[in-house]
Amino acid sequence: MRRVFYTAAGYTLGVGTGWYVQRRLKRTVERVAPEQVRAEVADRSRQVADVGVQAATRARDLASSLREAAQEGVATMRQEQTDLLGEFAADEAMHTGPARRLPGRGETASGGGYRPRR
Which of 53, 62, 77, 93 is most exposed by smallest CB count within 10 Å? Predict the structure, then answer.
């Protein structure tokens, strides 16, 4: 008796599952028909194009801002260099005395050479 029950239950479940899958498949095919697909693709491509235009505009604005900032920085550096060279040329005592030897690589200011172990 159990075998008959489980056989009937399995058969019913199999038929019901097949019917459900068939309905879902038909709905999906209707939804993905060429006409709906074309409309969906057109809508999405318009959305992507709008986003792309906005991104390009923002990138162009950022590039022009960076260019202006770089030009302003270069102009400021040149002005500062001109001012410093003018101050240096005006002060004769700064460059007429003996040159002070700065410590080289591996040396200390006291003159003793530091040599690391090898």
Answer: 93
DSSP code for 113: B
| Paired tokens of 38 | 């074309």
For residues 79 and 87, is the Cβ–Cβ distance under 8 A?
Answer: no
pLDDT tens per residue across span 48-100: 777 778 888 888 888 899 999 999 999 999 999 998 888 877 765 555 555 54
Would you kindly state where each structural domain of the chain is located, as residue ranges? 1-32, 41-86
pTM of the entire predicted model:
0.39
**DSSP letter for each residue of 33-72:** -HHHHHHHHHHHHHHHHHHHHHHHHHHHHHHHHHHHHHHH
Cα distances (angstroms) measured from residue 3 to each of 6, 10, 14, 30:
5, 10, 16, 40
